[in-house]
């Protein structure tokens, strides 16, 4: 890449921004005799002041898709199965799908879903970040549609280009941004049109709207952001683990020395953290950005070793 071009990974790692409160509640649920906690692999390693699911939990299982939670609930009728469901629009849609399919009575959802356009707008408004253009994520765009990013080109005059994940398509997206900046013709462009439509996946969007509603939520290391999350609608509160198990919101405590919040906002490099490569590594993560392969610190560790 040219020296004057900097690619900054933003808060697009759901493991990195999942609130500590949700991690602690998940750990506590997994220690109940009547509960089996079900979640994705990366989530069991996320640290909190109460430890992680892997080190301090007991009854938990790892799945790769929400549909597996249904099978576990069917095979364990004497247990309450709690699916700790995290992620952006891409992973929220399959969670909505299992609700549509019909879940067993002993299956509940601990939802920790976030909205991508909402957090990107936070970045735009933060003058310390200084975004010149967005490479919009192809997998999220497949759900929400390329039109979801129009706000950035129309309201903020920032190029927004939807791209896929292979090198050629990413380079095409970056080139499109540079052309727009040079020519001063700002717009939303989709270079991933084989997958992404302007309106997205309309069936998936209908399911999201049917089962979830927009809510004010916390982002780990970032704070409380209005209208940036999704929670189950009141009509499906009987499936909401927070209500079924009377879970409380637990105040987040900053990890001493960890700068994950600044890293995911593009205000600091992982190497600026005093813990990086010392007490914090992929094998022994001190902060959430080091846990997942999608985390900035994890990526930086592997590419700058």
Spell out the key features of this protein.
alpha/beta; 13 helices; Rossmann fold; 35% helix
Question: How would you describe the overall organization of this protein?
Answer:
It is built from 13 helices and 9 strands. With 305 residues, the protein is of the alpha/beta class. It folds into 3 domains: 14-115 and 203-244, HypD, alpha/beta domain 2 (Rossmann fold); 117-190, HypD, alpha/beta domain 1 (Rossmann fold, 3-Layer(aba) Sandwich), CATH 3.40.50; 260-303, no CATH class. A 6-stranded mixed β-sheet has the order 2-1-3-4-9-8, sandwiched between helices. A 3-stranded parallel β-sheet has the order 5-6-7. Helix 3 links the parallel strand 1 (35-40) and strand 2 (60-63). The longest helix is centred in the middle third of the chain and has 17 residues, at 167-183. The mean pLDDT is 95.
State the CATH superfamily name of the largest domain: HypD, alpha/beta domain 2
Largest sheet features? 6 strands, mixed
Number of strands: 9
Q: Provide the spatial order of strands within the biggest beta sheet.
A: 2-1-3-4-9-8
Query: What is the CATH domain class of the largest domain?
Result: Alpha Beta
**End-to-end gap:** 19 Å
Rg, Cα atoms, Å: 20 Å
What helical percentage do the residues reach?
Answer: 25-40%
Which overall shape is indicated by the principal axes computed on the Cα atoms?
Answer: globular
Sequence of secondary-structure elements: HHEHEHEHEHEHHEHEHEEHHH
